[in-house]
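Sample entry (254 residues):
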Amino acid sequence: MPNIYLRVPLYVAAFYRHRDDDHPLGEFDPVEFAAFTHEAIVIASSLMLVANPSEQSSLCYSQRVWQNILNGKPPKGGKRLLQRDPKEWPSLQELCTLHGRAFNDREPAFDYLCIRIPREIPFNGEIRKTNASYTLHFESARKLASLLRNEFYHTFADWCIQDRRSSNMAGIKRDRGEMLERFLTQYDIPVSADGREKDSLRRMANRWFEKAMILPNDRLNFNSDYLTHVTEEEIAKEKRRRKRMKVKDDLKKI
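Predicted structure, serialized as C-alpha cells:
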C-alpha cells in the first residue's frame, strides 16, 4: 500500500516511531492508524489524487513526490541538486536545501513522518483505489499534524502523572528535569544543541503542576524502567532533603 509523508516537529516524529518498545519503527517504516480513530478518519476522508508534484503542499507529500526528495531532486521535480543515496533518510539540512531555503539551526527542527494510507477510499459514492500520487490537502495535513502533536502532549501529561505517583510510592521527590530526561529517553527523542525542546516541555510541565493542575486521567499504563527505577543518587538526595527539612523544623521550635 502507498504512503504519505507528513511534516511534523522532529520530537513528534521520534515519538511515533518509538511508541512500541518491542517494535520500534525506522524512518522508512510507515505508521499505521487503526480504523475509526480520528487520524484514520482524517486520512481516509481527505486523500486526493494530485498527479502534478508542483500542486502538492510541503506539509504533506505523496510517495511519488517523496521519491524525488530521496533522489536529491526538489519536491516538484527537475534537476538533481544533491548527490545522495536514496536508501538513506534525508537529513534536516538536505530537506532545507531541496526546499530552496537556508538551514537555520535556531528554527524548530522538523521531519517527515511516513504514514500508511488505505488501499481504497470512498469517493462520490464509489470506491477508488489509492496509488502513489495520493496526498492530503493543505488544511487536512494541518489537521492531522495537530492531532499527532496533541497525542504527544497528552502522553507527556500521562507520563508526568505516573512519574509523580511512582516517585511518591518510592518515597522520593524526583526533580522534574530528571523526569523529563527519562521521558525523552523512553521515546528516543533527540534534543537540539540549545535544548529548546527540553525547555518547552519543562515549562509545560511547570504550568500543569504549579498553576492549573489540569492533567488528564490515566489513559496509558507505562511499564517502563525509565519511569519506575530509583537511582542511588535520588535516594541520597532525598535523605539530604529530609535532613534539611528536619533542621528547619528544629530551628522553628527554638
